[in-house]
Design brief:
The protein is an alpha/beta fold and 406 residues long. The chain is 36% helix and 19% strand. Among the domains are: 79-209 and 267-343, no CATH class; 347-406.
């Protein structure tokens, strides 16, 4: 490792397609900045001379989710083969009706963020929200009030580098981020021997290209040149609708099923397609949709009051949930890990077929990150036929992508 510079390692991660756009490299070295690439994803760019002290390359190699990710196991806390560590699980919603409605599901992460900063539990919460000057874009933000927590409510299905935000690794704060961002912050704190901030995450199916947002707007009759006053992907109902409002007062919207399923989801970056952890194992707390499902177990997207699946991963997370419930911030009903997995069929399928996907990608010549302690081998072996089919399909797709066209 000593022979390789930070820039060399960063370039390798980007060039192999394994960058998730989390911003960990820019946290380690402030001479790097996260910029949108030509294909619409966040990527590091060297803007100034390096600022990192000796050992930066090793810190990066330990924490960057494009290089390595470790599953989390905690003494005394059960480990579910799909969901990861589970100290407690609940069907949950924000007690505050405004927060519940603004959130993507039950408003749990928004309610916790508002309570944590308003009560003085943390100095700030780092998260993501729409850019004030261009609602099409998503940016990392520092939250210090209920109003700012409300302003960041709802999912943002677009690139954003939360780790690059100042304060994202502050032990006195909390950070809400994608699973890859949270795993990076956890690994960085472990490597440095420091205390991580309170880490909160959510169920994640991947980061779509920024271009997909504008392509969807164009389909809805909103050209790129038309200024927007607001844009939200979900929330304001459950699951909520993709909605854009122009400065002239015109509104364009479409369903969650159409926006995510048909327009945004198909554009997720390669790293997300080989992610071992869409469920936020490295967090203290993870929240996601606790969907109502049909007789086949597939989610229903009919509008209703939102419910979150809330999972405490650590004793710290469990303590936060218990105190938030006692304070009247959250309304909860205990459920099991299997209850959560049952209403997340895509996450369940992705986890059990990931071994096949990784095997097919490697056989086709792709370089992949190192994943450990996720139990992928027994899961893949238990679903051997599905894993083999996935490996073959991935091999063909990766080989086609890597083969130059005549």
């Amino acid at each position: 490792m000593a022979e390789q510079s930070l820039d060399t390692l960063v370039a390798r991660v980007v060039d192999t397609g394994n960058c998730s756009g989390c911003g960990t490299c820019a946290l380690i070295d402030r001479g790097l900045e996260m910029r949108l690439s030509a294909d619409g994803f966040m990527r590091p760019v060297r803007e100034r001379p390096g600022t990192a002290p000796a050992g930066a390359a090793r810190r990066f190699a330990t924490a960057c989710p494009g290089m390595t990710v470790r599953g989390q196991h905690h003494d005394g806390i059960p480990y579910h083969p799909v969901l990861g560590p589970v100290a407690g699980a609940w069907e949950a919603s924000a007690t505050d009706p405004e927060i519940r409605r603004r959130g993507s599901s039950g408003g749990v992460l928004t309610a916790l963020s508002a309570w944590l900063v308003e009560s003085g539990e943390v100095a700030q919460v780092v998260g993501a929200a729409r850019a004030q000057d261009e609602p099409r874009r998503t940016v990392p933000v520092r939250i210090v009030s209920r109003a700012e927590a409300l302003g960041s409510a709802g999912s943002r299905y677009a690139p954003v580098a939360v780790c690059a935000q100042e304060g994202s690794s502050d032990p006195a704060g909390a950070t809400v981020g994608k699973p890859c961002e949270i795993s990076a912050l956890r690994a960085l704190a472990d490597h440095d021997g420091t205390t991580a901030p309170l880490l909160m995450s959510f169920f994640c199916a991947g980061t779509p290209s920024q271009h997909a947002t504008q392509d969807l707007l164009t389909e809805l009759g909103v050209p790129a040149a038309e200024p927007l006053s607001d844009l939200w992907y979900r929330g304001r109902g459950w699951p909520g609708r993709f909605t854009a409002r122009t400065e002239q007062g015109r509104q364009a919207d479409t369903s969650y099923d159409e926006s995510w399923g048909a327009a945004l989801g198909p554009t997720v970056q390669w790293r997300c397609k080989i992610c071992p952890d869409g469920l936020g194992e490295s967090s203290d707390l993870t929240a996601g949709d606790f969907w109502r499902s049909d007789e086949r177990g597939y989610p229903l997207f009919t509008e209703s009051d939102g419910f979150s699946a809330l999972v405490a991963r650590t004793e710290r997370g469990l303590d936060v949930v218990q105190r938030a419930v006692a304070a009247g911030v959250l309304t909860v009903r205990p459920i099991t890990a299997d209850d959560v997995v049952a209403v997340q069929p895509s996450q369940r399928r992705r986890r059990r077929t990931l071994l096949g996907r990784l095997t097919g990608a490697r056989a086709a010549g792709a370089r992949i990150p190192r994943y450990s302690r996720f139990g992928l081998l027994p899961l893949g072996a238990h679903h051997a036929r599905e894993s083999l089919r996935t490996a073959r399909g991935t091999f063909r797709r990766v080989r086609a992508r890597r083969t130059p066209r005549p």
